[in-house]
């Protein structure tokens, strides 16, 4: 009886591990560290910030909604 319980527990653990591994594949690849740390420049004020934090509009990047609303600065 003891061996049967160990077998059942081992089977549940194996299924749990396989489901976790398979669901990780379905989520897709996480972004590479290079993509997360890529810096872009605000088209309004010129500050550099990570691409993940920037607001984009019209192919340009901005550091805030206010600067996005104001648009690119003409120098």
Task: Give a quick set of tags describing it.
48% helix, two-stranded antiparallel ribbon, 4 strands, rod-shaped, alpha+beta, 75 residues
Task: Explain what the structure shows.
With 75 residues, the chain is of the alpha+beta class. It has a domain at 37-75. The protein is 48% helix and 16% strand. It has a two-stranded antiparallel ribbon with strand order 1-2. The longest helix has 25 residues, at 2-26. The model has no long low-confidence stretch (mean pLDDT 85).
Oligomer kind:
single chain
Distance between the termini: 82 Å
Could you tell me the radius of gyration in angstroms? 24 Å
Strand order of the largest sheet: 1-2
Structural class: alpha+beta
Flag low-confidence runs. Answer: none
Overall shape: rod-shaped
Number of strands: 4
Helix and strand pattern: HHEEEEH
| Distinct helical segment count | 3
Look at the structure and give the mean pLDDT: 85
Report on the biggest sheet: 2 strands, antiparallel
The percent range for helix content is 40-55%
What amount of the residues lies in strands?
15-25%
